[in-house]
Amino acid sequence: MAANAISPPRPLTASSSSSSSKNLLFPKNTSFLSSSSCSKFVNLTIKKRSVRGFGVVKCMSSAAAPLLPKALLFDCDGVLVDTEKDGHRVSFNDTFAEKELGVTWDVDLYGELLKIGGGKERMTAYFNKVGWPDKAPKTEEERKAFIASLHKRKTELFMALIEKKLLPLRPGVAKLVDQALGNGVSVAVCSTSNENAVSAVVSCLLGPDRAEKIQIYAGDVVPRKKPDPAIYLLAAETLGVEPSSCVVVEDSAIGLAAAKAAGMKCIVTKSGYTGDEDFENADAIFDCIGDPPEERFNLAFCGSLLETQYVS
Predict the structure, then answer these.
(1) pLDDT tens digits for the chain (312 residues)?
(2) 77, 82, 251, 291: which is the annotated catalytic residue?
(3) How far apart are CA 71 and CA 88, in angstroms?
(4) How far is 119 from 13, CA to CA, in rounded Å?
(5) Is the entire prediction scored with pTM above 0.90?
(6) Using CA atoms in the order 62, 65, 71, 72, what is the torsion angle rounded to 10 degrees?
(7) How far apart, in whole angstroms, are the C-alpha atoms of residue 14 and residue 22?
(8) Residues 6 or more apart whose Cβ sits within 8 Å of residue 74
């Protein structure tokens, strides 16, 4: 995939399917399973709880208007962009080097640290465990300010990296966002990352036209971070929708836990650091969203989750 910001794809046209999907806008080559076929698939996967690979799944009813989520909520890091290993981790290490702290987070260590939601919380937990650097202050209040200053600099370095467009969107992200916005579904990004960093990702990589239509809930906008459901509940309340009408796209176990605790459906798209995590409670699991001809799922599938659970 090109590293440049993705421009809006070619115009979407109504599907030629004879089902009620004519009310939805999808690319011409989108195909749908009939409701009967969909039921057979669902019964099989739920009964066996088996992984069926990463094939595309699309379900539409032929008898009634398709059910769509009221809101589609994305995590940022690992979902929109696989930022953790070559984005956030690098920016943390560059910050530590600038401050001469003698700290380096290697790939494996950072994978463990990702189990802690939030960059400031991550640094604090790490230093509490291994010992604070000699240059760190001694009192708790001063250490909070110290961590905040490190995180501020780390965010600046991360935003500069994003603005260079060295990290591309993950496959299918722009497509799914366009389908949602084109069909009146609210779109938001809900992240434990700093709000400025998330805004940079959305604006630079999804483009300003999409960005102005996407709500962002990030950083310290809530007092408790994932796996606490606060950020997803805030999004639902602010958007004026019921949590049960929302579908979340996450990549991590803590994100999945937050979404499910909020009473929302959750699709997991595994990322570089999360492939081996436990996603037993996910409503569907894929390796990515995907673009045609390798699309994994679309907006219609998101809507179908409001009625049925899938394991893929």
Answers:
(1) 433 444 443 333 333 333 333 334 433 443 334 333 333 333 323 322 333 344 555 444 445 678 999 999 999 999 999 999 999 999 999 999 999 999 999 999 999 999 898 999 999 999 999 999 999 999 999 999 999 999 999 999 999 999 888 899 999 999 999 999 999 999 999 999 999 999 999 999 999 999 999 999 999 999 999 999 999 999 999 999 999 999 999 999 999 999 999 999 999 999 999 999 999 999 999 999 999 999 999 999 999 999 865 554
(2) 77
(3) 28
(4) 42
(5) no
(6) 20
(7) 6
(8) 80, 173, 177, 187, 188, 189, 190, 248, 249
DSSP per-residue codes, 71-85: EEEE-SBTTTB--II
Does 77 participate in catalysis according to the annotation? yes
Roughly how many angstroms between the first and final C-alpha of the chain, as a whole number?
25
Amino acid sitting at position 67: L
Give the Cα separation of 109 and 130 in Å (integer). Answer: 12
Is 75 noted as a catalytic residue in this protein? yes
* Residues 181, 187 contacting (CB under 8 angstroms): yes
Q: Using the 8-state DSSP alphabet, how is residue 250 labeled? A: E
